[in-house]
Amino acid sequence: MESETHRNKCAACYRQYNKIEHLVEHMRVSFHSVHEPKCGVCRKHCRSYESLREHLIGPLPKVECARVFSVRGCNLCLKIFDSSSAVRSHRNSCQFSRNTSGLLSRMSRLSLQGSYIDDGRMNGSQVVALSCKMVGGGSDGSLDLCARVCLVGEDENIIFHAYVKPLLPVTNYRYETTGIRPEHLRDAIPIKQVQRRIQDFLCNGEPIWKIRSKGGRARTLVGHGLDHDLECLGLEYPSVLIRDTANYPPLMKTSKLSNSLKYLTQAYLGYDIQNGIQDPYEDCVATMRLYSRMRYPNHPRDYASGSGEGQTRNNYPAWRQRELERMTPESLLELSVSDYYCWCLD
After folding, report:
1. Are strands 158-165 and 143-153 parallel, antiparallel or unpaired?
2. pTM, whole model, 2 decimals?
3. Fewer CB near the last or first residue (10 Å), C or N of the chain?
4. Which percentage of the chain shows pLDDT scores above 70?
């Protein structure tokens, strides 16, 4: 009985089943792949980095894994190293600083009046981060209106920054978090002009209906909660080129619940943001750094299992049930593909 249970053990998450048909059903709906975060000690697959963190340093961690991680693990990227000295040298590159160098970042810190456009960078970076800050409209001030927008390139320098004049009257400037006053919006750029400028920059001369995931001129857009930002800007952009840290499965709290950008920055980059008045430039830099970290994870860049076709391509059809039940757990895992697009394939 013990060997039978062991034979019905998932090769990825190590769940055990009394019957092989239950294991097959588990593989059918779990979408395990090499792209999942993995424990560096026991090699267990986890759905997200939050699950992996719980496995290593949570309230009830796996004892042996927690013991090894406490000595040779990095609490930011969650990787295991050969020695404690290797961890110490690694942390110098893994830990980011809130301070950024360069003239453009210092200009952002001074809360630029009006707008800023770097025409030289407009044609450069193929990946850009977007962040908006909202003021309140409507009778109770609860309607989000975009009043400040920032675009940052991969080098963390500003490409475009502007205060935005909303179409509707502002009834709550939310100064405690936005730092925006009426004088900032008095001569601000009308939102229609901002829409056109950002849309043209993102599409990069390519008609929006022609944009595809690979091989085109359109730029990849990074951000946190981009659906909301784009809606408030009145923009549409193809989902195949959107990289949103709020709904990327490895960075989510649960399959339905997102982590805040503040938490993700503190947990995976090692510094704090959004204390007091929030700077859209700072949010852009944080999302760009998170994207870069997720783009170069510690796993194979396997397109077949990481293209996100798990929900549309059934590798465990009912007509193969008898054949599947004769397979080993390792063979079943080889058939499994991810149900989300892994950013390592960018």
Report:
1. antiparallel
2. 0.90
3. N
4. 90
